[in-house]
Amino acid sequence: MNIKQVRYVCAIVDLGSFSAAAAREGVSVQAVSKAMAELEGVLGEPLFERRSAGVTPTPLCRAFATRAHRVLDEWDALERFASAPAIPFRLGFCYLEYPGIDRLVRLISAVTSKILGRQVDVELTPCVDALDALRSGREDALITMGPLEADDVACGQLGTVSSDVLVSTGHPLAGKDVLTLDDLADYPVLRPVGFEHYAHAVVDEYVRRGLRSEVVDLAPEGPSFDPSIVDRGYSFIFVGNVTGAPEGFVMRPLAKSDGLSVPICFSSLRRPGGLDLSSCRRSLARLSLFG
């Protein structure tokens, strides 16, 4: 069996005749007929009932064609990938922008470029823009904290990361080596606006698990922004060992009994000939940051 035979079967089923299939594939009718005879010899059963008015697929052929169409979708996607390796792969990373995050972005870009064998351009993408970025083609895929849920999106987990607490250097909690949820209860937790995946998977999940802090929606560019809330409150930070704490802030770990493992997810659109989600996800899971 070879890919040409698979392609011919799909063409015949789609178009209803050997001659139409041959015309679409740019080969002779004899070539298609010979290929089908050889494939039927391998399968041990006929694929078509041949009649003067054309051909009719057998039950075996219809079952074969259903699987063959999926194979061709992936094969065509692979050919496009192989024929255009210089086209950068665009990966959106749905995470907050702060000093030091560029180091994490560069690391993800370098590791994924090596794994996928092509240039990967990584950019920070607000969660509110994530679906539009995928559907418009601005991004080929996304990394999010927590799942991206939509009917036209295929989403899978790369791994999990643990969280640290980020507070200003003058914050009362800055003097503690390890924090608990009880320690945090008297201070507001900052819930960033525009990063719903992060907010749902992290802040809301901590609240569900018993965090008693006041939740403050933080929109730094909004007219009602109160800068003092940043000094009084705290936020959660991930992969701080790579990014470091922004100037004027320190990171403190949570006690193991209170810490939350947050799922890091990889998403792409569900579409024929689209990204091979399974293999790409398996490769990206090797990024130890998400282990």
Task: Give a description of the structure.
The structure is a single chain. This protein is elongated. The protein has 11 helices and 11 strands. α1 (3-15) packs across α2 and α1 (3-15) crosses α3 (29-43). Helix content is 41%, strand content 22%. The strands form 3 sheets. Strands 3, 4, 5, 6, 9, 10 and 11 form a 7-stranded mixed β-sheet that branches. It has a two-stranded antiparallel sheet with strand order 1-2. Strands 7-8 form a two-stranded parallel sheet. The chain has 291 residues and is of the alpha/beta class. A hairpin with a 2-residue loop joins β1 and β2 (54-57).
- Report the major sheet: 7 strands, mixed
Work out the helix count. Answer: 11
Rg, alpha carbons: 26 Å
Mean pLDDT, all residues:
82
- Kindly name the structural category: alpha/beta
What is the approximate shape? elongated
The string of secondary-structure elements, in order, is: HHHEEHEHEHEEHEHEHEHEEH
| Straight-line distance between termini | 39 Å
At a glance:
The chain is built from 11 helices and 11 strands. It has 291 residues and is an alpha/beta fold.
Itemize the secondary structure elements and their pairings:
Layout: H1 3-15, H2 18-25, H3 29-43, E1 48-51, E2 54-57, H4 59-83, E3 89-93, H5 101-116, E4 120-124, H6 130-136, E5 141-145, E6 153-168, H7 181-184, E7 189-192, H8 196-208, E8 215-218, H9 228-232, E9 235-238, H10 240-243, E10 249-253, E11 261-269, H11 277-284
Parallel strand pairs: 3-4, 3-5, 7-8
Antiparallel strand pairs: 1-2, 5-11, 6-9, 6-10, 6-11
Helix pairs in contact: 1-2, 1-3, 1-4, 2-3
